[in-house]
Amino acid sequence: MKSIFFFIFLIGGLFFFAVGTLGILRFPDLYTRAHSSAKCDTLGAFLTLMSFCIYNGLNMVTLKIVLIIIFLFITTPTATHIIARGNYERKEDSENGDF
Amino acid sequence: MISLLNFSLIFLSFTIFLCMYRAIKGPTIADRIIAINVVNTKVITIIIGVSFIYHETYFIDVALVYALISFTASILISKVIKES
Questions:
Q1: Cβ-based contacts of A62 with chain B (< 8 Å)
Q2: Which residue range forms the structural domain that includes residue A37?
Q3: Which of the ends of chain A has fewer CB neighbours closer than 10 A, N or C?
């Protein structure tokens, strides 16, 4: 039972990592790339780290991994948003305002 | 179960190389920063997987500190983009 859940979560996380990387490679614009990388950061990291929690069992290490998951959920979309917003405000100051 | 863990770490390393292609070739600086941000998340996952393979639990603390430092670096570099 434990190995079945480990398998499902790990394959789901690897699928989202692969799809996010494909989006970063293939999308034409900065903002679409930021969208794809945010999917990769939140869902891929959440599913993969939850599969590691299931693999480990229930002890102190699991608590630390859950702490890392909560921290990644707060910080990585924030970082992506701040990068995209900084790029948008930089382009607005210049004379060609297309994006 | 340990062979599946090995496969996942090798697969994540391969996707890191694909992200490094975008980080080297990206047209603007913000493309590079976004690609490096994804690489940071993958490296955190790889560190935790390696700690389970080696049975060393103190690697988890290394991953936590790595997450803190990568967030700070992204914020600072985005400020540099904004003022350029």
A1: none
A2: 2-93
A3: N
C-beta atoms of A76 and B37 within 8 A? yes
- Domain-located, residue A99: no
Mapping DSSP onto H, E and C, the string for chain B reads: CHHHHHHHHHHHHHHHHHHHHHHHHCCCHHHHHHHHHHHHHHHHHHHHHHHHHHCCCCHHHHHHHHHHHHHHHHHHHHHHHHHC
- Check whether A96 has a pLDDT greater than 70: no
Per the CB < 8 A criterion, the answer to whether A17 and B49 are in contact is: no
d(CA A97, CA A95): 6
Which chain B positions have a beta carbon within 8 Å of A44's beta carbon?
Answer: 41
pLDDT confidence band for A94 (50 / 70 / 90): low
Q: Do the domain assignments include residue A22?
A: yes
pLDDT at residue number B66: 92
Say if A16 falls within a structural domain.
yes
Nearest Cα residue to B29 out of A26, A59, A3, A87: A87
> Which of A22, A52, A71 to mutate to test binding with chain B, by most B CBs within 10 Å of its CB?
A52
Count up the domains in chain A and report the number: 1
Does residue A70 form part of some domain? yes
